[in-house]
Design a protein that fits this description.
Strands 1-29-2-3-7-8-9-10-17-18-20 form an 11-stranded mixed beta sheet, covered by helices on one side. Strands 21-4-5-26-27-28 form a 6-stranded antiparallel beta sheet, covered by helices on one side. It has a 3-stranded mixed beta sheet with strand order 16-11-19, with no helix packed on it. It is built from 23 helices and 29 strands. About 5% of the residues have low confidence. Helices cover about 30% and strands about 15% of the residues. The protein is globular, with a radius of gyration of 27 Å. Helix 5 crosses helix 8 and helix 15 crosses helix 20. It is of the alpha+beta class and about 800 residues long.
Amino acid sequence: MTLRRRVGAVLVAAFMAVGAIVTSAYFYVHRSVQPRSGEHTLPGLSQPAAVTFDDWAIPSISAASELDAIRVQGFVHASERLWQLEFFQRVARGRLAELFGEAALDADRLMRTLDVWSASAGELEAASPSDRALLEAYAEGFNARLASWRGPWPPEFLILGIEPQSWSAQASLAIGRIMALDLTEWRTELSRITALATLDAAHRRALGAGYPAWGPTILQDTLLSGANPPRLFAEGAPGGPALAVAAQPTSAAAGGPPHFDFFPGFGFSASNSWALAGSRTADGHPLLANDPHLSLRAPSTWYLNVIAGAESNHAVAGMSIPGVPGVVIGLNRDIAWSFTNAMVDDADFIVEGINLDGSMYRDTDGWRPFETRTEEIQVRGRNRPETLVVRLTTRGPVITDLVPAGGLTLSLLWTGLEPEGASTGLLAMNRAGSADAFEQAVMRLRSPHQNVIYATTDGEIGYRMAGSVPNRASGQGALPASSERMSSGWSGFWPPDAMPALRDPETGYLVSANNLQARPMFGRVGVDYPAPFRARRIEDLVSRASGWTVEHMRTTQLDSYSLWAERYRPRAVRAARRAGLDSLALVLETWDLRTEIAARGAAPFYTWLYRLRELLVADEFEVGDGWFPDLAFMEIVENRDSAWVDDSRTSQVEGLEALEEEAARTAARVVGQRWGEVHRERSAHPLGGVAILDRIFRFHVGPYPSRGGRHTVRPDAPSLRSRLDSTAWSLPAMNEYGPSARFVARVAPGDMAGHFLIPTGQAGNPLDPHYRDMAAVWTESSLIELRPGRLPDTAANALHFLPRGR
């Protein structure tokens, strides 16, 4: 044999050996996908139970009782979403840096400072015996799945070199508190503090824009004739309420909120929901729709399931969160319900007076030493743990040890650390059989705060706000309070029956899209409502609804018409004409204002709009970030506010027209580009950022072209536009935020039907074909029907469970 042939034979053998190793490794890891058929013994089960999976791997759980059904749900969640549950628990306990190193330290420091894990233990101690039994049954089902696991752990565990932790009732309760943290506006308030500290009175005045007169409210009240819309800061008092930091505008320290790149992102920070009475539907029965807008994660935040306990006549279907017993959004045999963020100001910052060495703070009875708690955080890649010393006052933890704010020492009061949470209310909502019983259940949901819209088989539609609203005067929570005024924290909370509510409005519809509950409540419930374009658009559509069906509700969820563009396109066109950019003007004029994938006007419009915003704030926020709400931007542009328009860094006085023309010249660069070419969406996985891992395991789901834009009913990520520099208008853009699920319910006696879809798939293992199968139909949203108490028409697989000893 010649040398060349011998070398060739060796190379062929080497390649075959490598191929065999890779193939063997692939098939080994693939065994981590757990079978959806077979028989298991489940400790604690009272009677045999079964789980039937449909063609989408959506389980229907059939058991003798609610307790048995929840035990099986814990088993199924662990089988399908083991890595996700591990991730959630590590978030709650502040242990992400053990896996992801320095990049996760901010999240861990925050969670150790707030100590939601201990707060969850307190909630568990206060739970009723029946609720505690359900929580513990869920955890026992999860742990039974761990004990009976077949094959290797899912790929994430193998890559990171860890084994899954057991589950507990405390871990389930902690998820509700992470949701509450994700929803709270305290990070916005910190940004507001820093902005007001650095701006003069003329600039602060424009930032006081409140809720506009054209914005609809959930309770459907209107602004009284001759009345002015509420403002965040009263006229003549541009600094707003008494604020220590406003008196020292040069003292702001650099810094910003912690990085939450690894945070789960399951607060419903911007969502849509509406209900139609039977007078507006084709069959005379109510319809309800909900699409919660969250960070898009792979696996999805949501897991679809149907749960039934025969002896208790318990039947519920819909969207669960792995780790949480029952259904979060969905329907039972009598009621369908939905959630949107209520935008409650549920946190206050207290300005603490401290001594020179920072060891003591001033309290009502003099100086008091800070209580301290030392935390050790293990960090991947370090030889020694990070040591974190948390300082605590009688009001709460000192948050500015993590996030500087104008050189102040601020402690944090937050409702998410109160004893009551979400579990009691959610479990009661699952069981409610009437509007009255359901509203009583909503009153027990104390955190996180939610707008809850529901519809019943009795033909009723209703709304009630859930959560905890602190007692305080209007607007007091928008800025820090002195320790003298808040020496003992809040005096209490609104009683549950004082929360805004409405049943069977004369209009025949209800709309909630993070808009103001009622005009007198601005400043009392909250102040950080988004510009209410989504609510306005939905109300415009449903107020004309007649003979609507599930299909009408579904297509409304996909609506991409931009009222934001309708308001400002004329300005953009005039600016393009003045700048001699006729091709840009023509593209904008002929655009139908829909941000569809094929749209040619969306890219230049959004580029123009956010380039204009950057030009307005370039001298005020030189670091490219700051508190600058869209409503403030609108007020500045429409009132031609000279303080913001003129660039203080130049000798000449700039006019708004010149800035609009400069923005038009930037927008002209993207003329001809379709929106879907430069606007894409994906559901992100924490390990998907490692390119080689993503190529092998396809952790990310997407990207794919995406419709929607800022403030459209089908939205995109606020984070795409949050920075005030070129990041906001540079294209292409990758969106990792948006509708995390779609749900439409037809609420008819004896014929309840929910229609659902999530953007990824049911499975949490990337090697499972159901990890991403729903992504193929997500763009056009072909919904999947689920019915409480009814098995699927087609059964792909089934698991059978026997009590121990049978």
